[in-house]
Amino acid sequence: MAKENKQAPSVNSRRKFLRNGTLATVAAVAGAKVVFASSMPEGYVPVVLQDDDPYKLFKKDKDLIVLNNKPWNMESQPHLLDDKVTPSDKIFIRNNGLIPDSLEEANWELVVDGEAVSSPKTYSLTDLKRDFQQYTYQLTLECGGNGRSEFYPPASGNQWKTGAVYCASWTGVRLKDVLEDVGIGDNAVYIGYHSADTHLSGNPDKEPISRGVPIAKALQEETLLAFEMNGEAIPIVHGYPLRLVAGGFPASVSGKWLTGISVRDKVHDGAKMAAPSYRVPCKPVSPGEEVPDEEMCIIESMPVKSLITYPKSGAKIDLGDSLEVRGHAWAGELEVSAMHVSIDFGQTWQTCEVEAPVNRLAWQHFKTTVKFPQDGYYEVWARATDSNGASQPMVVPGWNPKGYLNNACHRIAVKVG
Ligand SMILES: Nc1nc2c(c(=O)[nH]1)N[C@H]1C(S)=C(S)[C@@H](COP(=O)(O)O)O[C@H]1N2
Ligand SMILES: [Mo]
Predict the structure, then answer these.
(1) What are phi and psi of 59, to 5 degrees?
(2) Whose CA is nearest to atom 14 of ligand 1?
(3) Is the same domain home to 195 and 67?
(4) What separation in Å is there between the alpha carbon of 256 and the centre of ligand 2?
(5) Is 234 helix (H, G, I), strand (E, B) or coil?
(6) Which residue among 95, 302, 354, 382 has its CA within the 20 to 30 Å range from the CA of 207?
(7) Which tens digit of pLDDT belongs to each residue from 265-294?
(8) How many domains does the structure of the chain reveal?
(9) Containing structural domain, residue 400
(10) What pTM value is reported for the model?
(11) DSSP 239-292
């Protein structure tokens, strides 16, 4: 079901497609059209595309941190995430494979198929935009491995600190409306996505990642097939021209460069669905313990968490001045019901103001004013509580083999005097 979804153009038309795709990409990166395009040798990689400065290539803030270049992974930082809606230059990048090099909106197709679909249907982007109502939601996307660097023994994978999270505004059509149009059977259990990125091995038959969500999550109003982020076409690196966006679950279920949705009669079995990927031990284990695959459970809703986005850690203030502390809090499928900060390593906590979410699955903004009793070194710790009464732990929570779901309190340093 995976790659057969894709159109299988003849060698010549595929070449033309790639060439036009390259020209479109050059135009997008260079911000100008290629004047002597017809003289460009076939297979030639234009200089602007050879530039491997990721800050220029992906138009990112210079304070993002490169974790990896093959595939490209870049981390954001708490102080960059102060905006209520994260601007695209401040958003972390997580890729499992190679970014597609030909992305043509005009030829883009989404195939909906799978065991629970009796007649598969194909949509162009124009079909989606014309035939379905469009919605805009702010949706929090956090990598399941955000905070991994704090686990001991260390877990392999990108050593994210706290910057693999954002809340952008997404515009698109509801997956549920499209699935209704296709018609899905009672046997639908799960959906799986298919994308246009390439496996690191270069093998075109292997998908780098093909994850999904239970059918109930797929049918939520906020689960979108999105074509705009923050009111503009989605940036290439974040999934242009079409992306599945399902907030509140690990961001790995929000497939970029979306080409297919398979409606499955069983839990989707695409790349990175099997243990140990994006799974945690069903029952707590000791640090470093080996966990058999059958005892690993799929991560669904992300846990309650918060981030202090102002001030930046290391702030200095004068004695007697009060400090405004602010940031965001989120709780997967739930809401954040309370937010506290401590300046005495968790002995006492003061309540913060918390705004209601703009819509379900959007992060919530908190703020408070803190006063310090004397000069010296302090830490401000932030702790969110979800609508079920669960709070963030003050220490790193349950160790797990892949280092997922670290929702420990965020801490910043402040010097007074
Ligand atoms: N097609 C595709 N979709 C993908 C991925 C990918 O590698 N390929 N990475 C996933 C993971 S693991 C994360 S955390 C998010 C990252 O989204 P971002 O790059 O917009 O921050 O995209 C998800 N969607
Ligand atoms: Mo991720």
Answers:
(1) 55, 60
(2) 143
(3) yes
(4) 12
(5) coil
(6) 302
(7) 999 999 999 999 999 999 999 999 999 999
(8) 2
(9) 305-416
(10) 0.90
(11) TTT-EEE-TTSBGGGS-SSEEEEEEESSS---TT-STTTTEEESS---TT----
